[in-house]
Amino acid sequence: MLRKLLIGLLVALFASVAIIFAWLNPGMVKLDLAFASFDIPMATAITASLVIGWLFGLACVGAYLLSIMRERRRFKKALKLAEAEVANLRGLSMRDAS
Fold first, then answer.
1. Which of 28, 43, 66, 92 fits as disulfide partner to 96, beta carbons 3.0 to 4.6 Å?
2. Distance between CA atoms of 96 and 98, rounded to whole angstroms?
3. What is the pTM of this model?
């Protein structure tokens, strides 16, 4: 309950900051993409760059998590093999070992 309220307050805070930012910066920015040129509001340009950066960061974290999960699976397999080997060695009698 408290967590949802805190998240809601943070979203409202960020939305209000974005609205105030857009209101205080009504200027236009020329965006040149080499094949096309656009005149867009400054707030839109900054918001788009923030969203693109956030998505790129999310993709990087996702790739990192996938590599960690792959490594974890490999370690689990190695641990099962090691545990099986220890169980086999414990089952041997001392006479078999010499």
1. 92
2. 6
3. 0.62
